Amino acid sequence: MMFLQWDLVPMINRRSFLTKCGASYTAQMLVADAVAADSASAPIWDLHCHLSGFDGNTPEEKMAQMILSADRLGIDRLCTFMGYPHLENPTPDQLRAQNNQVLAAIKGWPTRAFGFVYLNPKYLKASLDELNRCVRDGPMVGMKLWIAVRANAPELDPIIERAAALQAVIFQHTWFKTGGNMPGESSPSDLVELARRHPSVPMICGHTGGNWELGIRAIRTVRTLYADIAGSDPTAGFVEMAVRELGAERVIYGSDVGGRSFASQLGKVKGANIDNSSRALILSGNLRRLLLPILNAKGVRA
Amino acid sequence: MIDTNVNMHQWPFRRLAAGDPADLVGQLRKKGVTQAWTGSLDGLLDRDITAVNARLAADCRRHGPEFLLPFGSINPMLPDWEGDLRRCREQHRMPGIRLHPNYHGYKLNHPAFPLLLRNAADSNLLVQLVFCMEDERTQHPLVRVPNVDLAPLPGVLRDTPNLRLMLLNWKNVLIGEEGRFLARTNRVSFDFAMLEGVGGVERLRKSVPIERIVFGSHFPLFYFDSALLKVKESALEGPDKEAVLDGNAHRLLGGSHDL
């Protein structure tokens, strides 16, 4: 396992190093700039990773590719959920198969890759069983709901209660799509309804609705809701508005790899006009704080 | 580092942090950019394209002489677009033009399109064709603009042998017979502002030679760092990195706009 220790790089005399390497002026400028940017950065925890989109024939091979790419950008921890191919409305058997892929993928990386169990509220018993199997009795630390059932549906309540009891981090995909969402696809407003029914349970608003100017507005008055910035174009202003309206302590970096790239999504945080303490919270501090209780319970150092 | 995909002026739907030309230059220089190929966002919807291009040229001269290279907007659906093209070249001395067929309401099989490309090529203007400006799922509900359908492009390119073309903000187009043609022909270059998937540039070079991949950020609509980090994510190093960040773009202009 390789971690890039970018925080050590500024200790090198950059100019002499680059000159000895024979780097051009352009390359010197680029590297110097990148190093300067990285020197101020915190550890990076990625909330939102998928195995799909990575090369490899097995979950283990795909995870190895994910780690390789994460290393290039100094990303320390990876939360991974859903198997491949993505299934919109998985049956109980398919849920187990998808979660087994994630279990296999994270097995070799117990302190680096964290699994979230994929659930389908249409199958309540199977979902609760999967929560028990993968989180209570297994290594997973969170749960993921996608687009089978909208988040305001009452079927979610027992799942949320069980997940909260297990201290699992709760992640719900959301979009406000121009042109309309898919039938089972939640909007941030749907998630707000769910959050208000469970006022003591923190939940993460996946993608912040994609149309983030709407998503941020939708969740801003519900302080238990966190904004996942993953999986949308790296449109400038997203992170600044999120920090302004939610506070930096409610904003979490995620990428949505392999459909997206680590780079395009990390650029949202690295390029945002915010102070470095806010940046540190977004890059890892907030996610670490949410995960710490369950990681501690499982004996994972973080 | 040459950024081939920079925007100036007002995006209709959001105030941009670097919307002011002086800010734009300052922020780009801070990132290590040495030259920015810049179009005007006013050119998307403003029908007085002549004035848009004049403002673009003036702002580039005033705020970034030898740094901001203006790429004028041409809308071939407007009467006397030929006059705009002539002014771009002769009056403003622009190195190229930027086309937005979707915002200007024409398909690439419209008869004016090949005519425009031929005129541009004959005037030695580099043409930047913009596939989209933003994800269709996040557009303003009253202004929904579909991505450009590139299917007719190979045929048009075959009929315009002296054209130099760049595709900006493209995604998912290198598929099918048309896509394979675009990847194969040596007259089309690609930025990667909207290229997604891990190691996107690394994967792109499996179908497009490195010589035709150029750095473009779509700044300030997009965070500049997103494009820059893609270079790092794809582990580009040495001559390949320098080609993508600088050399390929420099060559596209034939060295005619050296600093």
Walk me through the structure.
By secondary structure, chain A is of the alpha/beta class. Chain A has two domains: 10-39, no CATH class; 43-297, TIM Barrel, CATH 3.20.20. Helix content of chain A is 44%, strand content 14%. Chain A has eleven helices and eight strands. In chain A, strands 1-2-3-4-5-6-7-8 form an eight-stranded parallel β-sheet, with helices on both faces. In chain A, strand 3 (113-119), helix 5 (124-136) and strand 4 form a beta-alpha-beta unit. In chain A, helix 5 (124-136) packs parallel to helix 6 and helix 8 runs parallel beside helix 9 (238-246). Chain A is globular, with a radius of gyration of 19 Å. Residues 1-37 of chain A have low confidence and may be disordered. Helix content of chain B is 37%, strand content 14%. Chain B has a single domain (2-252), classed as Metal-dependent hydrolases (TIM Barrel). With 259 residues, chain B is an alpha/beta fold. The relative contact order of chain B is 0.14. Chain B is globular, with a radius of gyration of 17 Å. Chain B has ten helices and seven strands. Chain B has a seven-stranded parallel β-sheet. The N and C termini of chain B lie close together (12 Å). Classes of the chains: A alpha/beta (302), B alpha/beta (259). The interface between A and B is large, with 46 and 44 residues.
CATH uppermost class of chain B? Alpha Beta
**Tell me about the biggest sheet of chain A?**
8 strands, parallel
Please, what is the average pLDDT of chain B? Answer: 95
Q: What is the percent of helical residues of chain B?
A: 25-40%
Shape of chain A: globular
Give the full name of the CATH homologous superfamily of the largest domain in chain A.
Metal-dependent hydrolases
Briefly note the CATH topology name of the largest domain in chain A: TIM Barrel
Span from first to last CA of chain A?
16 Å
Output the structural class of chain A.
alpha/beta
Mean pLDDT of chain A: 90
Instruction: Determine the strand fraction of chain A and express it as a percent band.
Output: 5-15%
| H/E element sequence of chain B | EHEHEHEHHEHEHEHHH
Give the number of domains of chain A. 2
